[in-house]
Amino acid sequence: xSQASSSNYQNHGDDPQxxxxxxxxxASWTVRKFRLGAEPSDDLSASTTAEQRLxxxxxxxxxxxxxxxxxxPAYPRASAPVRLVDLGIDERGLARRGANS
Length: 101
Hints:
By secondary structure, the protein is mainly α. The protein has a domain of 27 residues.
């Protein structure tokens, strides 16, 4: 694990005060139980706003870069590496014959 992310995964020790504090923090966690295969969808669009979902992704992005031990890229968006893929769709949204074949 990288040094940058170690602050998120601290060894809190086994002192009684620390144990009680962590137990108290866990008491507010929401827990739901589902039968295997009956879990709800991972689609959060009905229960969160687009802004909340972007905030979640930003947290994951920061953690991923920290775990990789790399700095977050500082290049402008226009310079971001991209790859164009021809989806074979015409201007009407219909598949073109022969695309990607």
